[in-house]
Design a protein that fits this description.
single chain, about 280 residues, alpha/beta, Rossmann fold, 6-stranded parallel sheet, two-stranded parallel ribbon, 12 strands, binds NADP nicotinamide-adenine-dinucleotide phosphate
């Protein structure tokens, strides 16, 4: 397929762009100056000019704390612009792949979240991602789109928890990491590969795209440092030890069972963390 990628500088987009040709796709990935998700008219012009069969939207406003100060911008990029993109895709007959977040849930379920669980975001970022889901469903519907909810994404670049852990460990022998936020760390290389497998299998609709298992940030930190051969002292602390502008939901691990039924078994989260640690050490 000829695929247009939006948000080409992001950590997930980098792998979507890198892996596309191996799956037989032609990838078009303009920079953000040329392709701004929020600029409807120029977006429409680019879609007409490039005539892709599918769009993969990796663009997002992902700064969870800053979103509390900039709710309009977060709602615009993660919500309204996704709705306008979906409407353009419907009008032009383009298939749309979009990514959601576990932060659309409130973390109170005390079990794995399923695709059809009710949304109840507790911060602006989560609300903006929920709005994007709602408008995607309204403007395009599940038959002509794929919506993958992700959690705790890490990959190339500085905007992720593992990258930050490496930086902290270089400066301190002792680290404090929260033990009461629990979800599923998800590697961009896996997301890109599973996205292309899902497209090849003709999937449509909503899926939780996470590896198997779950972990607290504290457990992720300990495992990641063991992969790197580092041994800082990691002290578990509760979330309120680090006051943040945005509240974080506590347990948002999502079940990947629906996707596993279509694509086959998905690895445990540790595999992605290990591969990432090998990538950055090598
Ligand atoms: N990161 C996570 O932990 C996480 C967790 C759950 C779900 N997700 C979802 O996964 C998807 C991929 O996230 P990611 O981790 O790859 O995020 P990322 O690294 O922050 O990439 C997002 C990219 O979108 C760009 N962007 C922002 N506004 C744009 C606009 N108006 N037009 C074009 N590009 C724009 C950003 O540029 P600037 O940096 O210049 O703003 C950034 O390069 C997103 O939908 C995200 O919500 C991520």
């Amino acid at each position: 397929m000829r695929i247009l990628v939006i948000g080409s500088a992001g950590q997930l987009a980098k792998e979507i762009i890198a892996l596309g040709p191996a799956f037989g796709h032609e990838i078009i990935a303009p920079g953000e100056k040329e392709l701004d998700l929020t600029a409807r008219d120029s977006l429409a012009a680019i879609l007409e000019q490039k005539a892709p069969e599918a769009v993969i939207n990796c663009a997002a406003y992902n700064q969870v704390d800053k979103a509390e100060e900039n709710p309009e911008l977060a709602m615009e990029i993660n919500g309204y612009a996704v709705g306008r993109l979906a409407a353009l895709c419907r009008a032009m007959g383009i298939f749309l792949v979009h990514y959601g977040s576990d932060y659309v849930f409130d973390g109170q379920k005390e079990d794995f979240y399923q695709e059809d669980d009710a949304l109840n975001p507790i911060n602006v970022y989560g609300k903006s991602k929920a709005l994007g889901e709602e408008l995607l469903a309204k403007e395009l519907g599940p038959e002509r789109s794929l919506l993958f909810r992700l959690s705790w994404v890490f990959g190339r670049g500085p905007q992720n928890f593992l990258y930050k852990l490496s930086g902290w460990a270089q400066k301190q022998a002792k680290l404090k990491v929260v033990y009461d936020q629990i979800s599923v760390p998800t590697y961009t290389v896996h997301v890109a590969s599973w996205t292309y497998k899902a497209l090849a299998a003709g999937l449509t609709g909503l899926y939780h795209m996470v590896p198997s298992g779950y972990a607290s940030r504290y457990e992720v930190a300990r495992y990641y440092f063991s992969c790197l051969g580092l041994s800082p002292l990691v002290l578990p602390v509760p979330s309120d030890y680090f006051p943040t502008a945005a509240r974080r939901p506590l347990f948002t691990a999502m079940s990947n069972e629906k996707l596993v039924q279509k694509l086959g078994a998905l690895p445990e989260w540790q595999i992605g963390v290990r591969e990432y640690s090998e990538h950055i050490s090598g």
